[in-house]
Amino acid sequence: MSVPRDVACRELVDLVTDYFEGVLTPEEVAAVEAHLDQCPGCRAYLVQMRATIAATGAVRVDTLPDDAVADLLDAFRRSRG
């Protein structure tokens, strides 16, 4: 078995959605989990993301006001920037 490649914290943040959705390759999953084993900050981030998803998972986009959708999309675009 090969050693998982290193994943930086920033990369983990970019991969977390795919990790939750189960669409990462087995090698990517191993790399993310190896990073999580060593990084308490990213483990805390994962817990926070799961809590956020649980709290907001029932909110449908079509129930949000247009300005709220625009604000969320703008914040997402800025964070990816």
Notes on the protein architecture:
With 81 residues, this protein is an all-alpha fold. It has one domain. Helix content is 72%, strand content 0%. It is built from 4 helices and no strands. The chain has helices at residues 9-21, 26-38, 40-56, 66-80. The protein is elongated and about 40 Å long.
Map the helices and strands.
Elements: H1 9-21, H2 26-38, H3 40-56, H4 66-80
Q: What are the main properties of this structure?
A:
0% strand, 81 residues, mainly alpha
Brief summary of the model shown:
By secondary structure, the chain is mainly alpha-helical.
Helical content (DSSP H or I, runs of 4+): over 70%
* Count of DSSP-assigned helices: 4
pLDDT < 50 runs, ≥5 residues: none
Radius of gyration from CA coordinates: 15 Å
What is the end-to-end distance? Answer: 36 Å
In round numbers, the mean pLDDT is: 84
Order of helices and strands: HHHH
Count of individual beta strands: 0
Gross morphology = elongated
Q: What percent of residues are in strands?
A: under 5%
Largest sheet: none
| Main structural class | mainly alpha
Count of the domains: 1
